[in-house]
Design brief:
By secondary structure, the chain is mostly beta strands. The chain is built from no helices and 11 strands. Strands 2, 4, 5, 6, 9, 10 and 11 form a 7-stranded mixed β-sheet that branches. The protein has a 4-stranded antiparallel β-sheet with strand order 1-3-8-7, with no helix packed on it. A hairpin with a 6-residue loop joins strand 4 and strand 5. The N and C termini lie far apart (40 Å).
């Protein structure tokens, strides 16, 4: 079993930055693909960013490309999401997820473990 705990969310003004962290425990996630997803009120959960197990390959949703960066530190069993130039439409609960296997994925159904989420609110 893998437990995932997100942190770093909060309230920020438009144009500001936040860095989310996802700390894994129970098992090393160095051989897991990892992803970030978000869910805004009244909307379905959507893909944000993903990273391969070795950190070489990443992908981002078009809506965050150029503003968000995903990274990981396997020695710390932690994945990060650096969010810059935040917009009000980025407001959502952000979830970290882990999938068995080395590859990244933008499909939520391919993920085996999920965190509880952290709230990000961007004011205009």
């Amino acid at each position: 079993q893998v437990q995932l705990v997100e942190s770093g969310g909060g309230l920020v003004q438009a144009g500001g930055s936040l860095r989310l962290s996802c700390a894994a425990s129970g098992r090393t996630v160095s051989r897991y693909g990892m992803g970030w997803f978000r869910q805004a009120p009244g909307k379905e959960r959507e893909f944000v960013s993903t990273i391969s197990s070795n950190g070489v390959y990443t992908a981002h949703a078009d809506s965050v490309k150029g503003r968000f960066t995903i990274s990981r530190d396997n020695a710390k069993n932690t994945v990060y999401l650096q969010m810059n130039s935040l917009k009000p439409e980025d407001t959502a609960v952000y979830y970290c997820a882990a999938r068995r296997g080395l590859a990244m994925s933008s499909w939520s159904y391919e993920y085996d473990y999920w965190g509880q989420g952290t709230q990000v609110t961007v004011s205009s």
